[in-house]
Amino acid sequence: MPITTFLQRLRLNSLRSRLMLLVALAITPIAIMTVLGGVRERQAAIRASEENLQRLTGMAAANEAQSLERARQILVDLVSVPDLTGPSGRCNALLADVLDRNEGYVNFGLIRLDGEVTCSAVPMLHPVNLGDRRHFRRAIAERRFIAGDYVFGRVIRRHTINLTYPVTDRGGKVVAVVFSAMDLAGLDTFVNDINLPPGSILETADADGRLITRRPDPERWFGKKISPALLAAMREPSLRPVLLVGEDGVERLHAFARVGGPALSEYTVTIGMPVENITAAAREAQMTSLLGLAVITLLALSGAWLAGDILIVQRVRKLMDTARRIAAGELEARSGISYGNEEIGRLAAALDEMATALQAKEAARSQAERELRAADQRKDEFLAMLAHELRNPLAPISTGAHLLKLLHSDNAQITQTCAIIARQVEHMTSLVDDLLDVSRVTRGLVSLSTATLDLRKVVDDAAEQIRPLITARRHQVVLDLPPHPAPVKGDHKRLVQVVANLLGNATKYTPEGGHIRLHLVQEGDSHVLTVQDDGIGMDAALVGHVFDLFTQAERTSDRSQGGLGLGLALARSLVELHGGSVKAASAGLGKGSTFTVRLPRYTEEAESPIAEAVRHAASAQAPLRVLVVDDNLDAAHTLNLFLAANGHRVEIAYNAHDALAIAAQFAPQVCLLDIGLPDMDGNELARRLRQLPQTSAATLIAATGYGRQQDRDAARAAGFDHYMVKPVNTVQLGEVLALQP
Questions:
Q1: Cα angle vertex 457, ends 452, 458, to 5°?
Q2: Which residues pair with 461 in a beta bridge?
Q3: Which has the closest alpha carbon to 182: 121, 270, 234?
Q4: How far apart are the C-alpha atoms of 433 and 726, rounded to whole Å?
């Protein structure tokens, strides 16, 4: 009968069956103690036998060690005899005499370094080479006595072990190896005086696990490999006794002993005694105890089945129903059971207390969730205000730079300085955007203003951005650019940011005076830009995560530029937005790093008639009436100067109420409005301007430091036609003004 069917018939899902289970659990310690007692008795019998078995094994190992030590002494004595290395006839006679004088050996011989046997106590019918024998090679390499593994003799055709010893000249150089072949049948006689219990076996194995002695039936087992389990036990350094099942299916207790020390041999002796003989008495006692335990268990379970009380079941079911209601979210549910000192009453009290605690925690959680949402809203508002306040100082700087460029276009130095200021303001603005809205970057929400670009110009601008850092650290930078244009379709500011981030990363992690090389080539339909340095490099673990957010190499005192670990993550995001890819590589710590960017090559098309018309219209733009509303005096005045330099009529207001009054008289065609005005929100001002007949059709442009998407949506709903984040891009503003009728 399957166990599941048996459990269903016993109805183990009922309280009565569980009561039986409790009774069974109460009896379990007794059962465990009974079983453990039997096990302990069995183990005690085995331990009592281990000492005697270990003594027998040690005696057998000592006998065999004596035979090996005697063989070693014979070989040592032979090495000192001059005839051993003399003419082969005298050597053969010497070895034959030694063989006659020593029982248990079947041959003695001398092996040259090439493996050829030059002389032998037993005549050789054909040349013999023992160069492949492990014991021969070890004797030469280790320059000591070696007791070899089992071999079947090539000359004498007997089961043997070869014992070798190196022959050296006066300079200590090994010139030959002398060996003796010991008959395994003779070696087995050294353990004949060991009295084994009935059913026991005695075995000696070489390092490879092949038998060189065996009782009983030695001749039948010579050279055969022992079982893997027995071999593993022999190789254990502790040589502790183990229980193993032999090939005949008999479980035996095996004890082990090494034959001599490591300098003598790698042989191991084991004696296995049948466990059944050892534990017979303990087994009978255990069976008697188990039978008594079974009778007691049956009686106890029967009593538990008959003693089940339905009243307990009723109360437990009520507790279960209350628990289900609480789990379903009905936290006001209570058990209704009177509390007492008995177990079910205490359980009911604990359940009701849990429901009360859960109800309180749920209320606290709801309150915390409301507070967290409010804090998140305050955080968003703070970041928006922070962005606004950071961008406000940049606006007059940017506009002033463009104005200086317009007013001094004939002065190359001022023009170049203005261009540098403008680029740096744009770069700082983009950093503010990225730092204040990392989620926008990680979710791929960065918008691109694409145009046809020359990657060489992108590289030049990026190099100019980080030139102060390069100069400060005295880096040697090589820009290897092609002589012809490298056109791509992309956002100039963002691509400059990518290259600047890669170059900046190289300067951070390259020691002073190091080398940085930027290489730009065309490969097929792609432009490949490589930034390589000889800095600190990266280990393999960092290479796999170098483009993750906030990942940085280890900082030391000579690399203190800092950073948020955002640059490389942002670079990858921007490159992928351009349809390209970026990867990192490093040969390891201290071996520099290489970053490779691939961008699609762009084939330039002829300027469309519409674009050409817009461009000519922009250059031939008529003066416009423009109203600038901004509470930042510097930003308002620099914007006024820029617009006036382009021929437009400009009026300035520093608050919304003045702006409405000026608009009614000035009737502006374009209104540039800040959102964060002191007296009225810029969006409300836009709605009121739309209601004035003088400005109902005017172009409304938001020029603000707020850059969140919700701010843009609110401005669009208020009636704005365009939305520009400070500092205002004067080129973009000029294009918008050029499109005005």
A1: 80
A2: none
A3: 121
A4: 11
Contact 216, 235 (CB under 8 A): no
Strand partners, 594: 532, 585
| pLDDT above 80 (res 538) | yes
Characterize the bridge pairing of strands 476-480 and 515-523.
parallel
pLDDT of 607 higher than 50: no
Cα–Cα distance, 248 to 594 (Å, whole number): 66
User: For 536, which DSSP code?
Assistant: S
What is the torsion angle, in degrees rounded to the nearest 10, for the CA atoms of residue 275, residue 278, residue 284 and residue 290? -60
Q: How many helices (H) and strands (E) does the chain have?
A: 24, 22
653 phi/psi in degrees, rounded to 5 = -130, 145
- The residue assigned the tokens 């004696």 is 271
> Using an 8 Å Cβ cutoff, are 165 and 79 in contact?
yes
User: d(Cα 315, Cα 335) in Å, to the nearest integer?
Assistant: 9
**What are φ and ψ of residue 536, in 5° steps?**
-75, -15
pLDDT tens digit string along 264-276? 888 898 888 888 8
Residue at 145: amino acid letter: F
Residue 658 has pLDDT above 70, yes or no: yes
Q: Please give the C-alpha separations between residue 590 and each of 509, 517, 537, 584, in angstroms, as whole numbers.
A: 10, 17, 5, 15
CB atoms within 10 A of CB 262: 7
What's the rounded Cα separation, in Å, for the pair 718 and 703?
Answer: 14
Q: What is the pLDDT of residue 650?
A: 92
Asked if pLDDT for residue 188 goes beyond 70, the answer is no
CA–CA separation, 320 vs 315, rounded Å? 9
Q: pLDDT tens, 484-505?
A: 999 999 988 889 989 998 998 8
What backbone phi and psi angles, to 5 degrees, belong to 632?
Answer: -90, 110
Q: Give the phi and the psi of residue 296 in degrees, each rounded to 5.
A: -65, -40
* Closest C-alpha to 148, from 59, 56, 259: 259
How confident is the model at residue 721, as a pLDDT? 93
**Residues 106 and 212: beta-carbon distance below 8 Å:** no
| DSSP codes of every residue in 90-143 | HHHHHHHHHHHHSTTEEEEEEEETTSBEEEESSPPSS--B-TT-HHHHHHHHH-
Per-residue pLDDT reduced to its tens digit, 326-358? 888 777 777 777 776 777 777 778 878 887 888
Q: For residues 375 and 597, give the distance between their C-alpha atoms in angstroms, rounded to a whole number.
A: 40
Cα-flanking dihedrals φ and ψ of residue 243, to 5°?
Answer: -100, 125
- Measured CA distances, 551 to 16, 309, 457, 503 (Å): 61, 66, 29, 17
Q: Where in 371-472 does DSSP place strands (E)?
A: 451-454
Tell how strand 251-258 and strand 201-205 pair up. Answer: unpaired
In whole angstroms, give the CA distance from residue 185 to residue 154.
Answer: 17
Q: Could you say which DSSP state residue 741 is in? A: -
Q: Rounded to the nearest 10 degrees, how much is the dihedral formed by the CA atoms of 577, 580, 586, 591?
A: -90
Q: How far apart are CA 399 and CA 726, in angstroms?
A: 10
| pTM (2 d.p.) | 0.38
- φ/ψ of 166, rounded to 5, equals -75, 145
Nearest to 296 by CA among 30, 16, 22, 39: 30
As a 3-state breakdown, the chain gives helix, strand, coil percent values, each rounded to 5, of 50, 20, 30
